[in-house]
Write a structure and sequence with these properties.
The chain is built from 11 helices and 4 strands, in the order H-E-E-H-H-E-E-H-H-H-H-H-H-H-H. By secondary structure, it is an alpha+beta fold. Strands 1-2-4-3 form a 4-stranded antiparallel β-sheet. A hairpin with a 2-residue loop joins strand 3 (66-76) and strand 4. It is elongated.
């Protein structure tokens, strides 16, 4: 996850790269390329082509957002030559970022930066944090599904899996699942993970992933052996967190992750449907 100072630096660089052309805020594709961490122009133009296609599919006129222009560059001894360039609207930049690899910090930042109408680094930082939490929750869901499948093959049914998961929660938080729900005000029909802060979600995910791996490596079967393994993994994660000054049960609950996800999806839909505005 990007740190606050890294977000501010990226914000500054993207702001400085913006230009105004015929009263419209634009970015040069040649200048945007390194900002989005593309080493080769050829690869970047592939991303631009995908963005053009997505733009057309959204009902936008491609030429309104992607304008072919020339750019003069130094080639040595004071000489210059013209190279191809494209002026991109904020909407075009957003579509390019949407087709990028979000594992790259610059791409994750750009998706939020170009989606935001209000250009404030604080808002961008908050949205990135919310996106990280939603992604962490989705990752935990996938890991627990994997773990459930592994345990089923080892003779543990859904009820057994729920017992093992609750024992893991007690080891990590010093509270079982029911107690956690009462402490954090979680509705009975909702998973407690939907209301945990990002670091706690990732802690549960790490412990569950280790259990899924070790159950197979150690060839464990049945509830007692697997429960012991899961408890030990959660205790290990708890130890690391406490050593770093984080007491899991004392961390405050977070907003319902489903509400956060709906809000992010709504913002994404608005960004995809609206035309560029200055």
């Amino acid at each position: 996850m990007l740190k606050a100072n890294e977000i501010k630096e990226l914000f500054r660089r993207f702001e400085e790269a913006a230009v105004e052309y015929d009263g419209i805020e634009c970015w040069s594709a040649r200048e945007l390329q390194p900002l989005l961490d593309y080493a080769q122009w050829r690869r970047f133009t592939n991303a631009i082509d995908k963005a053009k296609e997505a733009c057309a599919n959204a009902g936008e006129k491609v030429s309104d957002h992607f304008a072919d222009v020339g750019k003069m560059v130094q080639i040595g001894s004071g000489a210059e030559k013209e190279i191809d360039d494209i002026l991109l609207t904020r909407y075009a930049c957003y579509m390019i970022a949407q087709n990028g690899d979000t594992r790259k910090p610059a791409i994750a930042f750009a998706q939020t930066y170009f989606a935001m109408q209000t250009r404030r680094s604080e808002l961008i930082e908050q949205r990135l944090l919310e996106t990280e939490r939603v992604e962490a929750r989705a990752k935990l869901r996938e890991t627990e599904k994997l773990l459930s499948g592994v345990l089923y093959e080892r003779g543990v049914d859904d009820k057994g899996f729920a017992i093992i998961r609750s024992k893991g929660d007690r080891a990590l938080f010093r509270l079982d699942t029911a107690q956690l729900k009462r402490k954090f005000g979680v509705p009975d029909n909702r998973p407690v993970a939907d209301f945990l802060p990002t670091v706690s979600i990732k802690a549960k995910d790490f412990a569950a992933a280790m259990t899924a791996e070790n159950v197979q490596i150690k060839d464990l079967s049945g509830i007692p052996a697997i429960e012991k393994e899961h408890v030990e993994n959660n205790l290990g994660v708890r130890k690391i967190m406490i050593e770093r000054g984080l007491v899991p049960e004392n961390l405050p609950p977070a907003e319902d992750v489903k509400k956060v996800e709906r809000r992010l999806n709504t913002e994404k839909e608005k960004a995809l449907s609206r035309k560029n505005k200055t």
